[in-house]
Fold:
Amino acid sequence: MLSTTARLSSRSVVCAARFTPRRFYSGGDGAGSVAKSQGFNKKEQAHENQYARQKEIEELKKLKEQLEKVQQEVKELKESKVEKE
Structure:
């Protein structure tokens, strides 16, 4: 009885080991080969540049708005000074 149980349990371990998922890599690149490729680096660089340009455009818009507000305030102050005289 005991030997039959041991034999059945050892079979299930062998069967389980046979069906476990395995990774196979082609070539010697191994993990991270996509990140090391030249095309990926160029694409990533292009995305970073595009993001930086977009942020700069947004920043410039904000600065232009602030400049317009200050110019309007200066204009109003000049007009109020002229009226007082």
